[in-house]
């Protein structure tokens, strides 16, 4: 009797999925600023050999490649370069979408040399009342194109989805009840109404988001041993793969005369906000970069043990990162990067970091601080950051080439967030 009561809770704890385990940690994590152990950030403007960087040119040619390599080696892994030809197939162009306000396109992207990967379905909405090529927000979705749009004729994704009763996911598959479940995060009419297009894909098209997901995704298809691969230190993780998907959308958009490919803004929320930052770091074609509540592994300073930590994230979601990253669990000081360097990798392009006050798990102050500490790199390009040293009041957006807000409410993407991103993108795209 005693034995089984002891055994059961232990067993159920062992059976928790990474998602559930992470959620359980939210209750016991540290949210007390005074308990943060003092730390020193790695120096942004000193090379590994100790040379000081004083010019934009030296940042671009010497230190930036070094910092990018550090993120590959220690955090996200290296994106392999062996995918070969990329093919685009236009599945649909619907000129009277959203009641005539938009054209909706569905483009299937695949790799003819890697047929084991089923490819990705990109959905684009562009405004009808605008002449000439338009700027475009590019971002992945958690639930598929049918979840972003409320239009009933968007094909339902048939791919694996994370379990969610309220999102209508049954046996890890979307159902009719899943339609539109992410539409509040993608206010299409508002975005298109301001002259922007939106291009999105389901992140699970590139890799299902669970520990073994890579076996059915792009990573196995590109590796020479397929699903028998052993991921070594420095090999890419799922965030790298999802980010690769965003770059393939940019490949397509460069061929689409309706889109101004000089004006692409990459955007992502939460784990997909980590993905958008890594995309901006690797792919300069994204000329504006937006991180919405990206938290640990994204914009938040990893040396602050506040909310989610390196130890927690690498235990619950080891597949997101390269293997090496987990060696910094409770050992952050040994890591040669911190997240101000991920923000600096976006320079001189404008970057927007957003937090939410009820999203303490993502460490809003840590998200703010990464932008603040990236400012010296922007300064080398004559670009301004926040213009303040302290986190602003709630719902008081600020900043120039590095911008920030902390809004009322919880972990989410809201119209308030989009209002700021639209204003920011317009300012920087000169609209
Ligand atoms: C949480 C995870 C966060 C964040 C979030 C999300 O469980 O701990 O790092 O990525 O998921 O993506 O919604």
Automatic annotation (TrEMBL):
Keyword Hydrolase: yes
Domain of life: Bacteria
Keyword Nucleotide-binding belongs to the record: no
Signal peptide range in chain numbering: 1-22
Organism whose genome encodes this protein: Prosthecobacter debontii
Positions of the 4-O-methyl-glucuronoyl methylesterase-like domain: 234-382
UniProt keywords, alphabetically: Hydrolase, Serine esterase, Signal
InterPro entries: AB_hydrolase_fold, GCE-like_dom
GO MF annotations, alphabetized: carboxylic ester hydrolase activity
Descriptive protein name: 4-O-methyl-glucuronoyl methylesterase-like domain-containing protein
């Amino acid at each position: 009797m005693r034995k089984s009561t002891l055994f059961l809770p232990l067993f159920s704890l062992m059976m928790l999925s990474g998602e559930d385990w992470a959620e359980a940690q939210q209750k016991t994590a540290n949210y007390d600023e005074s308990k943060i152990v003092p730390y020193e950030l790695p120096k942004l403007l000193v090379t590994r050999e100790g040379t000081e960087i004083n010019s934009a040119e030296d940042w671009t040619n010497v230190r930036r490649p070094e910092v990018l390599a550090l993120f590959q080696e220690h955090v996200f892994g290296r994106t392999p370069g062996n995918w070969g030809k990329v093919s685009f197939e236009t599945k649909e162009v619907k000129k009277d979408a959203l009641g005539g306000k938009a054209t909706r396109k569905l483009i299937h992207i695949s790799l003819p040399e890697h047929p084991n990967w089923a490819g990705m379905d990109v959905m684009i909405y562009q405004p009808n009342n605008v002449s000439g090529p338009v700027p475009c927000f590019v971002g992945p979705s958690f639930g598929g194109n049918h979840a972003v749009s409320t239009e009933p004729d968007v094909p339902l994704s048939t791919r694996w989805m994370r379990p969610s009763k309220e999102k209508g996911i049954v046996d890890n598959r979307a159902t009719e009840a899943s339609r539109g479940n992410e539409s509040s995060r993608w206010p299409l009419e508002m975005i298109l109404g301001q002259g922007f297009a939106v291009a999105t894909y389901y992140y699970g098209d590139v890799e299902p988001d669970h520990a073994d997901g890579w076996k059915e995704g792009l990573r196995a298809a590109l590796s020479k041993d397929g699903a028998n691969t052993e991921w070594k230190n420095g090999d890419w993780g799922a965030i790298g793969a999802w980010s690769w998907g965003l770059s393939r959308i940019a490949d397509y958009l460069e061929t689409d005369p309706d889109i101004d490919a000089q004006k692409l803004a990459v955007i992502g929320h939460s784990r997909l906000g980590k993905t958008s930052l890594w995309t901006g770091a690797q792919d300069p074609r994204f000329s504006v970069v937006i991180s919405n509540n990206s938290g640990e592994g994204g914009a938040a300073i990893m040396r602050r043990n506040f909310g989610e930590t390196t130890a927690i994230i690498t235990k619950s979601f080891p597949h997101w990162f390269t293997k090496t990253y987990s060696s910094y669990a409770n050992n952050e000081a040994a890591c040669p990067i911190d997240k101000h360097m991920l923000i600096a990798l976006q320079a001189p392009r404008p970057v927007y970091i957003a937090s939410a006050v009820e999203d303490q798990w993502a460490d809003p102050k840590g998200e703010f601080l990464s932008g603040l500490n990236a400012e010296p790199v922007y300064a080398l390009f004559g670009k301004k950051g926040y213009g303040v040293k302290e986190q602003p009041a709630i719902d008081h957006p600020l900043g120039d080439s590095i911008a920030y807000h902390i809004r009322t409410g919880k972990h989410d993407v809201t119209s308030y967030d989009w209002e700021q991103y639209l204003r920011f993108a317009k300012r920087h795209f000169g609209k």
